[in-house]
Please model this.
Amino acid sequence: MKVLLINPPRENEIIGNNPSIIEEERGFNPPLGLLYIAAYLEKHTEHEISVIDAQVERLNYSSLAARISEFAPDIAGLTTMTMTLIDVMKTAGIIKQTDKNIKVVLGGPHVHLFPEESVNLRNVDYIVLGEGEEAFKDLLDHMDNKQALMNIAGLVFKEDGNIIHTGLRPPIKDLDRLPFPARHLVPYKKYTSLLSKGNIATTVFTSRGCPFKCTFCDRPHLGKVFRARSAGNVVDELELCSKLGIHDFLFYDDTFTVNKKRVMDICNEIVKRKLDIGWDIRARIDTVDEEMLKNLKKAGCRGIHYGIEAGTEKILKVLNKRITILQAQHVFDLTRKYRIPILAYFMIGNPAETRDDIFTTFSVMKELDPDYVHMTILTPFPGTKIYFDGLKNGIIRKDYWKEFAEDPKPDFIPPHWDELFSRNELNDLLVKGYKGFYIRPSYILKRIGALRSFSELKKKAAAGLKVFFMKQFTGRNIK
Model:
């Protein structure tokens, strides 16, 4: 059987509340979910597997249709995110136009949150819920008449007009038994990121799930129980990537620093094997200490992304962050001591947040003085506590996301928390926040002093000009 896994184009992406300058600079990450499934199928089946990442290959729909027709799959699996749902549906339509007998399977966070709505969409045959490696393999066994469909946990499909839900499949406990992502099936040399300075880069999951319960995050609703790979298994993957010429990594765990001993073991293993690599992590400030930072630096960590989100204790409690600004200041100082660059995340437009709260956040950003900040307006995403609370108390007046899941339209505008501010007011405030942080003489001088090449100077200067001339952005464009 011929199996095609597709990361659809991003031509009709629904942009939340991210500034366009950030979207333009984010580069491309490999579709690790698809690559894990591909590797699992290569190991456990004899099917012919192919992967198309239409985003990194910059395929339009005409080119994608030609590639699909050329491979002539029996079954096609599509990564499905809420914000790219329209592109997913267009891709599914192209697949069926190529051959109506090709089975179309959707997987990813969106279909986990909206399984019935997703299976009711045109050109969709099956939904795979949760982690897809085992369920997709079992579905292929069914198509080979080896397994009854009703016995496969983690599927949603239609039979005689009725929606059949076979129940959730437990998360995979032992992540070490999964083969490494099949990077050889995609043009891996095309993946770069802003943080990798233009070098070949890739993402790595050293764990799955998150033990924390921030109210703006959908992970708890997705059933993402925290599980971690062993240090040796993680570094085996890094070493394999290094042999492919990949030396820049972003550890894409929700929180890399959950378990200090495991972090230290990974660092020690990287040093032991003398891997010449650079890597960034995402961390919480309440899981980091000086000993960890010292070892991170020694092992090649060249950036830490901290989610601070707000500058007042009131809003931090609303978001259930369970951190303090004093903690943040202490950890930022320690991180700077070991010369590890800091990217800090902040949001405005949170529940109960006043104008004074927002300007306090802007002041705190400058006091913390990270190397970079990423600011956004809160988008109450489906599956988050904030979204459920908004529906319950009427601040979010209808179930926007469910309506979109049932009938995706390109003019959809994601909801915001409009308790105290209009969307335009929040846009104006966000522009003030960006300019207030980046257009400071002290910041500009610091960044000039950190430049390492003329090409980096040009890139940073271009981004700086975009911030300087920024007036307002509303989803897709800066106006």
The mean pLDDT is 91. Residues 192-378+416-478 form a domain with the pyruvate-formate lyase- activating enzyme fold (CATH 3.80.30.20).
